[in-house]
C-alpha cells in the first residue's frame, strides 16, 4: 500500500512539472508569462524559508536580507566584471551563504523571540548598508543597467525565457532541500526542532546542523536574488525589506510549514490572489486579509500540512511519515514561542512489549561494540568535588565519585537529593559551580552536551524526550548519525561515500530495532506510541550511538515488578556482552540491588554512603534519610 501511495505521489509530481513546462507554450500572453515568472521566483524564496522555518523551527525574520545580498552581489559582479549569469548566481549564492554562516554562529544560542529579533536586526543591517553605501550600491538610486540572464550559449530575453530559468531554479532548490531533509543532517535538524536538549544528548550538533541549514537556505535565496537582478535589470533596496520576509512567512504558513509543495502552493496563492482581486480596488485588501484569516483558521497547519482541519477533514497523507513530507511540522505560533522542552509523561505503566504483545528478545544488540578502555589504571569516569548552586541554593555539594569500565553504579536517594542534577552536570546539560569531571582521561567539565555524547557518554531522561514528529526508525537514525562523517556536498551529490554510509546505517538500525522488538512499530510516529514503547525507543536511541558510559535516569519509572525484573536482566546482558558502564538513577531498590555493583546514596546534594549494595542498605544514614528507618 505504501509503495502505491508513493507511486501516486510521484505521478502527481511529474504531472505538475509537465503542466508547468507546457503552460507557457499554450498561453501566449506575455503578461501571464511575467506573472508566472514572479510566482516561481517567489516560490524559490518560500522553499528556502521553509527549510529554516518549517523543518528547523527557526523564525528567520531577516531572510529577505539574504535575497538582497544575492541580488546586489550578482549586480556588482555583472556590472564591474561583465560576468555571465552562472558566475553572478554562484557569487550571489556564495556571498549570502557565507554571511549566513558568519552571523549564525553567535546568535544560534538564542531561542524563540530572541533569535527572531536577532535575525530581524541582521535583515535591517543589510537594508541600511544598501541604503547608505552610496559608492558601491548607489543608495536609494539603485543599480541600473544589469544585463539580462546570460547562460553563455543562450540569453533569457522574454518573460517566458525567464520563467523557464526560474522554474529550473525552483526544481533545483526543491531537490536540494529534499535531499538535505531526507539525510541524517535533516533528521538532526528536525530532531533539534522537536527537542534540542534531547538531540544534543545523543550527540547531534544542534548549532552546527542549524548553521548548515541556514547557510543552505541563504544560498538558495542568494541565487533567487541574482536571477531577480538580471530579470529586472535593476536593483534597489525596496524588495528586500521586512515586508518581503513577512510575505515569505505567510506563503510558508498558508501552504504548510515543513512540507515539500506547501511553500510553492502558498507562493502561488499569495502572489496571484492580489491579481485576481484587482477589479475590487477598494475592497481588495479587505478580501485578501479575510481569505488569509479563513485559511489560517480552517487549516492552522497550512493547506498541505498534515492533520485535521477545523471541520474535521483530513488531507490524504502517507502511511509512513517522511521528514521531507514534514511530519509534525509546527504551527507558526509554536515556532515563535518555543522553549526547548520535552514531553512530561509520568505515572503511566511501562510495558516492555513488542507491537504484537510479545516480550522482546533479551539479547543485546550486536550493533554495539565494546567500548574503548580508559587509560590503564584510570576509572572511566571521575568526578571530583562537584558542586552546583541554583540562585543561591546549593543542589549538589562536594560530590566525588568514580565509575570503572564495565561497572554499573546505582545513584539513589530521596526526592530532591540531587540525583538528576548530577546526571545533568555529568552529561553537560548544566555547568558546575565548582569541581571537575573527567571522562576516559579527558576533562569534560565545561564541554557541551553534544560533545560529551560524541565522546561516548550518553544519557536518557527521567521524562522521555523523543523526537515526536519523527518515526521510531527516524529517531534511531537521527542518533546513529553521530557515527557518520557526512559533508553537505556529499549529501547534495549523493556520493558513493554517502550511499555506503546510508547502507551501513540501514543495516545497523534494522538490527537494533529487531533485537529490541521495535520493528513492528518502526514506521509509527514516536509520539504516538505507548509509554512503554517510548521508553524502549529512548534506550535504543542512546545505545545505537555506541556509548562507553550510559546514564539512565529512572528507566523503570511506572513499571510493575515483572517489567522491572526484565529491565534488570536486560541491563546485565548489555554489560556482560559489551562491557558498557552504567550509572543508574532509580527508585526501585529491587532493580538497583540486583543490577548494581556499587551504590552511591545522596541526601540534600551530599554523598552520605557508598559501597556494595548489601552494605549500603544497612548504613545508619541511609536508613534514616532514604529508607525511613532509624539509626
Which tags fit this structure?
single chain, 4-stranded antiparallel β-sheet, alpha/beta, 6-stranded mixed β-sheet
Question: Any overview of this molecule?
Answer:
- This protein has 631 residues and is an alpha/beta fold.
- It has helices at residues 2-26, 30-55, 63-81, 85-107, 112-132, 134-137, 159-182, 184-194, 196-201, 206-232, 242-255, 262-276, 284-298, 332-337, 419-427, 449-454, 472-480, 488-493, 496-515, 531-543, 561-578, 589-595, 613-616, 620-625, and strands at residues 143-144, 234-235, 381-390, 393-403, 408-412, 434-439, 442-443, 457-459, 549-553, 581-585, 598-603, 606-611.
- A hairpin with a 2-residue loop joins strand 6 and strand 7.
- Helix 2 packs antiparallel against helix 10 (206-232), helix 2 (30-55) crosses helix 12 and helix 8 (184-194) packs across helix 17.
